Amino acid sequence: MEKKLGATLKQATKAIHAGCLERPVYGEVSVPIFQTSTFAFPSAEEGAARFSGEAPGYIYTRMGNPTVHALEDSLAALENGRAGLATATGMAAITTLFLSLLNHQDHLIASDCLYGPTEVVIESELPRFGIETSLVDTSKLDAVEQAWRPNTRLLYIETPTNPTMKVTSIRGAAAIAHRHGALLAVDNTFASPYLQRPLEQGADLVVHSLTKYVNGHSDVVGGMIVVNDEQLYRKIKRVLTLFGSTMDPHQAWLIHRGVRTLPLRMERAQENAVRLAEFLSGHPKVTWVRYPGLPDHPQHDLARKQMDGFGAMLCFGVQQGLEGGKILLNNVRLITLAVSLGGVESLIEHPASMTHASVPPAKRAEAGILDELVRLSVGCEDFADLRADLDQALNKIP
Ligand code: LCS
Question: Whose CA is nearest to atom 16 of ligand 1?
Answer without folding.
Answer: 340
